[in-house]
Design goal:
The protein has about 180 residues and is of the alpha+beta class. The chain folds into two domains: about 1-55; about 75-170, Alpha-Beta Plaits (2-Layer Sandwich). It has four helices and four strands, in the order H-H-H-E-E-H-E-E. The chain has helices at about 5-55, 60-70, 80-95, 125-140; strands at about 100-110, 115-125, 145-155, 160-170. Strands 1-2-4-3 form a four-stranded antiparallel beta sheet. Strand 1 (about 100-110) and strand 2 (about 115-125) form a beta hairpin. The radius of gyration is 34 Å and the shape is elongated.
Length: about 180
């Protein structure tokens, strides 16, 4: 094979190799990456559609559950909410015979949609009555969340215990009226 033909063949092979490499890096790989990203996006969208269809199918149940929770929240009238909590604490203490030493309330506004009325109760009694007291707090139909419970012995035999209970009461703020322009 003459040298001139060999050089032309090598030049054609080199150009073809560079063209294939450039085609792979500039065309084929980006297209495959775009196709893969599109397939992932389609899978994500299909999953979201399936999840949202399930939510739509359960809409009535979810709305009923939400309405039940809204009915259990405290009124957004601050003094009335405080009175509701104080009445509940008095009722729990009266029903169980637990002595309440102190009640420390505090309002917290964490978002525009709701606020919490946090309350710490210091009480004392025997283990049986404190268990009944905690049971009553836990079973209260109002929107309460027990944040912490502390028990400590007040005597050497452990017959008299002190209870430190912190809970929060949920108060939903009604949405602000939409201004019409």
């Amino acid at each position: 094979m003459p040298t001139d033909n060999r050089q032309k063949l090598l030049l054609i092979v080199a150009i073809a190799a560079v063209a294939l490499f450039a085609g792979d890096k500039l065309v084929l790989t980006p297209l495959m990456d775009a196709w893969s990203a599109r397939a992932k996006r389609i899978t994500t969208l299909r999953n979201e559609v399936a999840r949202n269809k399930a939510l739509v199918a359960r809409e009535r149940s979810i709305r009923n559950h939400w309405n039940e929770w809204q009915a259990k929240t405290f009124t957004n009238d601050i003094s009335m909410a405080e009175q509701q909590v104080n009445d509940a604490i008095d009722r729990w203490a009266r029903e169980t015979g637990v002595g309440i030493a102190a009640v420390t309330p505090q309002w917290k506004t964490e978002a525009d949609e709701y606020q919490t009325y946090e309350c710490r109760i210091d009480a004392a009694s025997d283990i049986r009555r404190l268990m009944q007291f905690l049971y009553r707090v836990e079973r209260e139909p109002m929107a309460l969340k027990i944040e912490s419970v502390e028990l400590a012995a007040r005597d050497k035999e452990g017959q008299q215990l002190s209870l430190g209970l912190q809970f929060s009461a949920l108060v939903l703020n009604p949405p602000a009226p939409k201004s019409s322009r």
